[in-house]
Amino acid sequence: MDFYYTFNKYLQNLHHQRLWRLPLSTNYPCPNRIEGKTGCTYCDGVSFLPHYLKDNDNLQNQMERGMKFFGKRYKVEYFYGYFQYNTSTYGNTLELLKKYDTVLEHDKIKGLIISTRPDFVYPEILNGICKLNEKIKKDIWLEMGLQSVFDETLKRINRNHSYQDFINSVEMIKKLTDFKITVHMILGLPGEDPEKIRSGIKILFNDCRIDGIKFRLLEILPGTAMHQDYQKNLNDFYNFDHKSYSNLLCDLLEIIPENVVIMRLSNFKSLKKFERTDSKHYTKEQLVEEIKTEFIKRGSKQGIYFKKKQYEHS
Fold first, then answer.
1. How many domains does the chain have?
2. How far apart are alpha carbons 185 and 33 in whole angstroms?
3. CATH of the domain at 199
């Protein structure tokens, strides 16, 4: 039994084969870290760059290196190009479109995922991607970092956009394109306990038509503003253990519509803080197993409690 709708399941249904995401970079900086902006408080500016990518490496080299690495490691032949690093709709629009086109035209690429921010989604880039895809007709996803629906949280973590900006971007994408939308959410941000996180997910799916969701457990990196916030305001940060985190994910999956693709349950690095009794790192496989066990115990699955008209902002 499938307890939730994974991205692997989505890919298998669409392409009937195993594929992998191929992380890429536009080589443009993060717009939240230029012109005097200090960036999101949880980000150190370097930790989210895949290890095989090099600064300013050209796109062809990135693709060749990535395909070789992931093809050998996961025994896959085809990929989704994934502009993951920084804000991949920021920069010269024509240059960005050339980069997207280079990826889309590759015969080993079955789709394209573009990671961005709500405040850098605009008609010119959307219409440009649509035009590129007229002749190719590949699967396009826009992945928008939201992190939280609560503006007080967004301000505290220095996102420099609002929840309304996100809603506006979703509406623009749905109006101008047939692209699918993934929302990126961080769990464990300051001031957000499990109850507030559950409330936020209800708000999100009441307000927006989202096709996929990606979760990340907050990782407090040394030297970041978030680390300073954590040291000063320890009680504002909910302390998850592996059981409370897997249970929260079950709660969230129950209130997410069953047709929404679960792109990721957590990042690998943050799971390492959950130590096992034998002192080995807690793994993604263990997280998945705990979720399945809990769903069997509950007699539950993704979307079982989703009733859009009954969701209330609280």
1. 1
2. 20
3. 3.20.20
